[in-house]
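It is worth pausing here to work through a concrete case rather than discussing structure prediction in the abstract. The textbook approach is simple: state the sequence, then state the predicted structure, then interpret. We follow exactly that order.
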Amino acid sequence: MTLFNKEYLLLKSVSPIFVREVLKNDKDNIMLAYTYVKPGKFELQEKPKPGLKDSRDAIVRVTLGSICTSDLHIKHGSVPRAVPGITVGHEMVGVVEEVGHEVTSVKPGDRVTVNVETFCGECFFCRHGYVNNCTDPHGGWALGCRIDGGQAEFVRVPYADQGLNVIPPSVTDEQALFVGDILATGFWAARISEIKEEDTVLIIGAGPTGICTLQCVMLKNPHRVIVCERSEERLRFVREHYPGVEVTTPESCKDFVLRHSAHGGADVVLEVAGSQDSFRLAWECARPNAIVTIVALYDKPQLLPLPDMYGKNLTFKTGGVDGCDCAEILSLIEAGRIDTTPLVTHRFPLERIEEAYRIFENRLDGVIKVAVTGAASTSFSAR
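Step two, the predicted structure:
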């Protein structure tokens, strides 16, 4: 184990000049990592490479990562539990470099997806599939929020047997990139929404998570799928890639859904946009006794106007993704039933991640998702 893995906490308390000198003399043990400095500021820094801290850990060399809207929430101070100083990023794939002696499901050299959720697999919630509520101190969304994440050359993954899934040989890194986060989110949302083949399903929001949710909803073969989106670019994307899906805008959504549903509204609504207007639109467009699934993460509290909703008898389902379906999702990708590669519109090396963030955050140049290659990466392809 290197000096950094043993004594990094001590180094943090001494002179920055001393730290820089040590780093300069130990280049093999440092890496680039995009770091949450303080609200409003991320920065590409040199940091020690991570080492194993527990016998159930794995170290993964990140070959491909991405930027999530949740990263922007951290940047803007909307995630109070995010810890300044951590490496951000929770969407990644890579190659296993090292494993603790209790890890059995992966080995060095395996290409793997990394789960956004950290979970032990043994507590009450994990055993019931509610892994987002794992009772481990680092359970739930930890990577890139409360512990170092993957917008870096290397990442330590706790509970590797739960958090890593081997990528099939025929599946490329880019095909697998979103398995551990936004695809897991879409799959979870479709699963808990109890969609039936006779249903009309409304999805509000056609951003990256909305499109992943759409693909997973389509696996349920509902009678009709409607996507509501404000952006004309995103509506064009839906029309181009999913011609059987009907589209509308927020201004026309209520009337459109009423005209295209049999019982006074959508049977299932999935809210993936994350604004005050979209939250209200979700329950207004639902028929009585419908299911409304809240997939989005909100910057501000939302009002539940119960007097206005009285008599609709709606069932709301909310929360963070229970990301325990990654193996099944990889099988669906391998079978050609899920394909999220059209979402990747821009590619950058880790050294240019600031530019990638600028484009993604400001929705420039038709961006949908950005792929960030690790500094140690050589290829997007499967072995």
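Step three, interpretation. Confidence is low (pLDDT under 50) at residues 1-14, 376-383. The chain is about 30% helix and 25% strand.
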